[in-house]
């Protein structure tokens, strides 16, 4: 995901369009508390939205629209896994849809036009799974959009964690710490990084943006959209789950490590807008 003027321009235009078409969108619960974030690794796949709990279990639409589907099983109006339980789909202007999953099956879903004040139902709250899953779909571009782009920013937030940076070379892992020696050449780098969130599983959620600069190359990973291509979800239409995640580690990409001092700079921004940076100088050694 090499940074380019073309990609930067596209993303800027995309944000302008999305925000302009969703000026009054709101969170589907009062006092939202994040449990899982967009693009996070969940059971070997990207999580396609956000999971939040609220002051109570009531769920409302994020914006005015029309309920076009609600289910407890059977055929589905959107390409979603059946494991998300009962869900409702609300269609908004400009081909956007919002999906509300993990709803209580005992509640009746309203039909027709709804507003942000309409009661859609209650989310299931138990030891197995807690909170409503909110998914935003852009029908025109056929992708899923990170809800944090269109919803009000949540207050607070803790700076993301950056730790255990590794370089991988010929089956060997090298700890990336100051003055460490690493064989020169094209090397894959990975890191353990997350945004600490109280109440989330393991107390961590995926960040929003990672930027890595090593040598003359900069690579940026942005959790903005998920595109379905050949039945597989790709982050920003480029990275598969297998490309990005190695168990708890996030793959930053492959970089050319030269000889001598090499600067490794990593910046991670969380969904709350708080960021953290790290700069490490390693020593590239010549290889035979």
Describe the structure.
The protein is mainly beta and 288 residues long. It has 2 domains: 5-19 and 26-150, Glucose Permease (Domain IIA) (Distorted Sandwich); 161-285, Immunoglobulin-like, CATH 2.60.40.10. The protein contains 3 helices and 25 strands. The two termini are 30 Å apart. The relative contact order is 0.17.
First-residue to last-residue Cα separation: 30 Å
Mean pLDDT: 88
CA radius of gyration: 21 Å
The portion of residues forming beta strands comes to: over 45%
**Outline, from the CA principal axes?**
elongated
Number of domains: 2
Top CATH class of the largest domain: Mainly Beta
Low-confidence stretches: 1-16, 18-23, 73-79
CATH topology of the largest domain: Glucose Permease (Domain IIA)
Q: What assembly state would you assign to the polypeptide chains in this entry?
A: single chain
| Biggest sheet features | 10 strands, antiparallel
> What would you call the structural class?
mainly beta
Query: What is the CATH superfamily of the largest domain?
Result: Glucose Permease (Domain IIA)
CATH architectural grouping of the largest domain = Distorted Sandwich
Kindly state the percentage of residues in helix. Answer: under 10%
Number of strands: 25
* H/I helix tally: 3
N-to-C SSE series? HEEEEEEEEEEEEHEEEEEEEEEHEEEE
């Amino acid at each position: 995901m090499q940074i380019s003027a073309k990609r930067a321009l596209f993303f800027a235009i995309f944000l302008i369009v999305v925000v302009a078409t969703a000026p009054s969108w709101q969170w589907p619960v009062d006092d939202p508390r994040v449990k899982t974030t967009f693009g996070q690794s969940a059971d070997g796949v990207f999580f396609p939205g956000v999971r939040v709990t609220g002051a109570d279990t009531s769920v409302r639409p994020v914006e005015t629209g029309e309920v076009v589907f609600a289910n407890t099983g059977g055929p589905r109006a959107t390409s979603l896994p059946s494991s998300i339980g009962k869900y409702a789909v609300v269609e908004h202007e400009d081909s956007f849809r919002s999906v509300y999953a993990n709803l209580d099956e005992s509640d009746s879903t309203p039909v027709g036009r709804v507003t942000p004040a309409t009661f859609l139902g209650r989310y299931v709250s138990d030891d197995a799974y807690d909170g409503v899953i909110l998914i935003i779909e852009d029908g025109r571009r056929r992708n899923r959009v990170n809800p944090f782009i269109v919803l009000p920013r949540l207050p607070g937030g803790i700076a993301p964690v950056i730790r255990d940076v590794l370089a991988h070379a010929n089956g060997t892992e090298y700890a990336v710490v100051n003055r460490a020696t690493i064989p020169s050449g094209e090397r894959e780098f990975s890191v353990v990084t997350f945004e600490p969130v109280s109440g989330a599983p393991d107390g961590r959620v995926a960040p929003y943006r990672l930027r890595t600069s090593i040598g003359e190359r900069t690579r940026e990973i942005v959790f903005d959209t998920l595109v379905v291509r050949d039945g597989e979800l790709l982050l920003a239409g480029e990275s598969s789950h297998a490309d990005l995640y190695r168990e708890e580690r996030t793959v930053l990409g492959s970089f050319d490590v030269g000889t001598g001092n090499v600067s490794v700079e990593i910046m991670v921004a969380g969904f709350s807008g708080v960021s953290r940076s790290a700069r490490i100088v390693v020593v590239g050694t010549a290889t035979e």
